[in-house]
Write a structure and sequence with these properties.
mainly alpha, 95 residues
């Protein structure tokens, strides 16, 4: 059996925890929805900056399962998860 060096395992482990993998198509849908809303009140450049920030915050702070829950159009996410999303995204509004 072939094993990976410890440093490779650490890098793989850190990258797995640093960024969640969006369910297929979910990131694009998030960006489309976010940009459509943001463009109503800010410039195209500011909308792109804000929405990209939000996508990065979600990737860094939420698991794939949590992203799935937040993106489900049929079932609203738990209140605690939704509130956590708003708190995390506050950093993007402050920019």
């Amino acid at each position: 059996m072939r094993t990976l060096p410890l440093t490779a395992l650490l890098v793989l482990g850190l990258s797995a925890t640093a960024h969640a993998e969006w369910p297929q198509g979910t990131r694009a849908t998030y960006m489309d929805d976010c940009l459509a809303t943001a463009r109503q009140t800010v410039s195209e450049q500011d909308a792109e900056k804000h929405c990209s920030c939000g996508a990065e915050v979600i990737e860094k702070n939420f698991s794939a399962d949590e992203i799935r829950q937040l993106s489900d159009r049929q079932t609203p996410p738990p209140v605690e998860l939704r509130d956590r999303l708003y708190r995390e995204l506050a950093a993007c509004r402050a920019q």
